[in-house]
Design a protein that fits this description.
The chain has about 500 residues and is of the alpha+beta class. It is built from 13 helices and 30 strands.
Length: about 500
């Protein structure tokens, strides 16, 4: 279970008991003596983040907890028991709920970094310095996609600040130091090693976490992960734990990712990410074979936004992106990060493979946030004209023309065009690829199909060419596209 780390103060005793029971062996191991020097040098720059919010306490409601966190079930049971002991109190007035997290100062004038989920629902935010001073904070900006937030306080004198290091230079096994506020125990120092890099824990589109076995617990969220030079190389964000305490698997946003986001929040109060206007998916081995790309590499374009920069540049569905702005594209996540980090308005060269040949396109990068607003306002198009229903067997698929009746049965959007699947043989390769009734085949071998007869003729032609597999572009009822390679023989 992956969970975020800020913890309500009212559960301190229970959380502390869990932390003691689950203290990992790796965190107890003796590290290099320089850890003490690092801790002494930087600890005054690490702060506690105290938040409070008003909640509807009718019936003894429990504090708001991010869904999926390790203590979610514990919180629910705890407050149910309390209600059972105290009895239900109807029409109770709203009450204040507090929680704690961590953060660190990056500017002596009072700029503080933390996690977005630490302050996301707060009515008030305070920064508590290492000497106990308490300062009211304002939110400069926040970013949900990387779970980062930037705060400002107004101190009476300059504060101790720390600088960012280069997370790309971290090596596996290198010692790192985490400092934060676990279970409300402010100024806690733990040490461990870098266990892995570029971890994807499915928390957002730009996941590339540093994994560490330094003891990280609830309340460490937003705290810094230091190298032995006292530089911040990560921001502690999440843990994997069956019960909420550290078992030596923690995750930190790398500084390379954080710095770009923080600079934008500081300058604009919001992010300004690059936008290509495409949907993408990985190039698997079978898809690579169907497209004659050896070895499998790059990112497959599964859809192109009609109003996006890629459309204007001539990038098409079915293209495989190999290079973007001079950088090799290894996989889909790679392209997401490269595009996001590209300045808005920049003209970049994109190298794609289309039908076996490399082509170069020049695209002017748009702004992701503008693209998201456009998508939210996109109007529905008129319905397609009715078509004659035809059913036949092919590749373990039962197929039909896409009629109004079938659109209604499978709730298929009017914008989706192609051949609808009405049945799938449970023992077929199509079933293994999770095709199901209601999916719509849009293209075969990068050519549009509109009837089962067209589809069959295309498959017969591919077989005559000696092709062992074909690439299918498939849409679900909502119009979301994906590529699937199916064997023809």
């Amino acid at each position: 279970m992956v969970g975020f780390l800020n913890s309500p103060r009212s559960l301190f005793a229970a959380a502390w008991a869990v932390a003691v029971l689950l203290a990992p062996v790796g965190a107890q191991a003796r590290g290099p003596e320089s850890i003490a020097d690092v801790a002494e040098r930087v600890i005054d720059a690490v702060v506690n983040i105290s938040t409070s919010q008003t909640v509807d306490a009718r019936g003894g409601a429990m504090p708001q907890v991010p869904p999926g966190t390790p203590f979610e079930e514990f919180f629910e049971e705890f407050f149910k028991n309390r209600r059972g002991q105290q009895g239900e109190t109807p029409n109770r007035t709203p009450r204040r709920v507090s929680s704690l997290g961590s953060g660190f100062i990056i500017d002596a004038e009072g700029i503080v970094v933390t996690n977005n989920h630490v302050i996301s629902d707060a009515d008030e935010v305070h920064v508590i310095l290492n000497d106990g001073s308490r300062l009211k904070a304002e939110v400069i900006g926040r970013d949900q996609k990387t779970d980062l937030a930037l705060l400002r306080v107004k101190p009476e004198k300059p504060l101790k600040a720390v600088r960012f290091g280069d997370s790309d230079r971290l090596r596996l096994g290198e010692w790192v130091v985490a400092i934060g506020n676990p279970f409300s125990l402010g100024g806690t120092v733990t040490a461990g090693i870098v266990s892995a890099r570029n971890r994807d824990i499915n928390s957002g589109p730009y996941d590339n976490y540093i994994q560490t076995d330094a003891a990280i617990n609830r309340g460490n969220s937003g705290g810094p992960l230091f190298n032995l030079d006292g530089e911040v190389v990560g921001i502690n964000t999440a843990i994997i734990s069956p019960s909420g305490g550290s078992i030596g698997i923690g995750f930190a946003v790398p500084s390379k990712t954080a710095v770009a986001v923080i600079d934008q929040l500081r300058n604009f109060g919001e992010t300004r990410r690059g936008w290509l206007g495409v949907k993408i998916q990985p190039v698997t081995e079978d898809i690579a074979e169907a497209l004659s790309i050896k070895p499998a590499r790059g990112t497959l374009i599964a859809g192109v936004d009609d109003k996006g920069p890629a459309k204007t540049a001539g990038i098409e569905t079915g293209d495989v992106v190999l290079k973007f702005d001079g950088k090799d594209v290894k996989d889909a996540r790679d392209l997401q990060r490269i595009v996001a980090d590209t300045p808005v308005g920049k003209d970049v060269e994109v190298v794609v493979v289309r039908k076996g040949k490399e082509e170069r396109k020049t695209v002017k990068i748009g702004r992701l946030e503008d693209g998201e607003k456009q998508a939210a306002l996109q109007p529905k198009k008129d319905a397609a004209p009715p078509e004659k229903s035809v059913v036949q067997k092919s590749l373990g698929l039962q197929l039909s023309n896409l009629t109004d009746t079938l659109r209604q049965r499978y709730k298929i959007k009017d914008t989706v065009k192609g051949v609808v699947i009405t049945g799938v043989d449970a023992n077929s390769a199509a079933a293994d690829k999770r095709l199901s009734a209601g999916d719509v085949i849009v293209e075969i071998a990068q050519e549009a199909v509109s009837t089962p007869d067209e589809m069959q003729k295309k498959i017969d032609a591919l077989k005559k060419q000696g092709r062992k597999s074909a690439l299918f572009l498939v849409a679900n009822a909502e119009g979301e596209l994906r590529f699937i390679a199916l064997a023809l023989q």
